[in-house]
């Protein structure tokens, strides 16, 4: 069962043996689909997990620092076969503790993949081991991780007595997919396949979406998580940053009151951009893929049209542009009418997890 270029969504799902997505009660509508993992959890099998620390350099804008990112390797219990190693990345304000990520990891392990669950710079599990925070383009962190993942795959090849080298895949949830896309555009050989689920391709468009009045509570929740992670940095926060992050006692306001202003005061300068406009322009995969003709490994984009956070318009435009590119055979798109932001909670569990597992399995036959 190979994955063919330019397949329609229905043909691709049929090829994978998966039915089109349908919401299940009571998770009806974009917001309940998005929030389901906040309200409910799933019983998951115990994971055979081990901690791995990956050395990363300091941020360019800091004279000293650097340290380790913390990842967790989950292995399938079967010693007879292994289908690949999947580097799994969380989204904005998240970590490897998020329910959606742990459930996807479990689904992949059940399909005989090993899963390397990475905590990005600044997330809680690695807060004490590295300074700063991550960005949509943090290649100086991701490229060492991807190289380490390849080394782990060679060891797994020996451990599972595989006759061929075990492939290395990537799966990114929301901003995690954006980060993986930017890393792979530096070197498409870093991964043998990639899935991006509800991932922002145009950061300015995405920021405008989260700023809509309907998303006030979402933005406040995300912003509070980002501010907390930043202020809890044991390596310290610059006075300029602290003044922007904390509420001013005099006017009882703070300079950072939305995701865009957080990126302008914190993310952009930390990663060497002059302001949020330059950051959004240069770290948005859409523009690099279209204007600079960057190549990717075989990539699947999964996006819901009712996503309250990430508009699907950029992914739709990217699909249309790629129809005329030399790289069209490597990229596929699945758009659903419903599903929210990384929701896809269907009648047989999480439909998105099933698509990711089946699609990555299909790459083995190409």
TrEMBL record:
Keywords: Hydrolase. It comes from the Bacteria. InterPro entries: AB_hydrolase_4_sf, AB_hydrolase_fold, Hydrolase_4. Residues 82-326 form the Serine aminopeptidase S33 domain. GO terms for molecular function: monoacylglycerol lipase activity; short-chain carboxylesterase activity. Belongs to the AB hydrolase superfamily. AB hydrolase 4 family. This is Alpha/beta hydrolase. The lineage of its organism: Bacteria, Bacillati, Cyanobacteriota, Cyanophyceae, Synechococcales.
């Amino acid at each position: 069962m190979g994955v063919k270029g330019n397949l329609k969504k229905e043909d691709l799902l049929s090829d994978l043996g998966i039915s089109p997505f349908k919401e299940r009660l009571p998770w009806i509508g974009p917001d309940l689909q998005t929030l389901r993992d906040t309200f409910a959890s799933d019983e998951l099998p115990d994971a055979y997990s081990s901690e791995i620390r990956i050395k990363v350099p300091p941020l360019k804008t800091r004279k000293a620092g650097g340290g380790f990112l913390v990842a967790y390797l989950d292995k399938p219990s079967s010693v007879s076969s292994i289908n690949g190693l999947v580097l799994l990345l969380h989204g904005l304000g998240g970590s490897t503790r998020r329910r959606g990520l742990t459930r996807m990891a479990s689904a992949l392990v059940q399909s005989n993949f090993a899963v390397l669950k990475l905590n990005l710079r600044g997330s809680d599990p690695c807060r004490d081991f590295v300074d700063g925070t991550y960005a949509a383009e943090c290649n100086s962190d991701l490229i060492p991780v991807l190289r380490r993942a390849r080394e782990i795959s060679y060891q797994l090849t020996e451990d599972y007595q595989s006759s061929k080298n075990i492939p290395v895949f990537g799966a990114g949830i929301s901003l995690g997919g954006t980060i993986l896309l930017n890393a792979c555009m530096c070197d498409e050989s870093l991964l043998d396949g990639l899935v991006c689920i509800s991932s922002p391709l145009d950061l300015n468009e995405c920021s405008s979406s989260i700023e809509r009045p309907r998303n006030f509570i979402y933005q406040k929740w995300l912003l509070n998580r980002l501010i907390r992670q930043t202020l809890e940095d044991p390596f310290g926060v610059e006075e300029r940053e602290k003044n922007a992050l904390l509420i001013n006692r005099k006017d009882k306001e703070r300079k950072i009151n939305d995701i865009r202003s957080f990126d302008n005061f914190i993310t952009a300068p930390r990663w060497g951009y002059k302001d949020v406009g330059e950051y959004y322009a240069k770290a948005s995969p859409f523009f690099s893929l279209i204007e600079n003709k960057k190549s990717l490994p075989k990539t699947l984009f999964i996006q819901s049209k009712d996503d309250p956070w990430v508009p699907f318009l950029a992914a739709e435009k990217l699909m249309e542009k790629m129809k005329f590119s030399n790289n069209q055979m490597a990229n596929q798109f699945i758009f659903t009418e419903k599903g929210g932001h990384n929701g896809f909670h269907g009648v047989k569990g999480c439909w998105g997890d099933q698509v990711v597992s089946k699609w990555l399995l299909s790459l083995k036959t190409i």
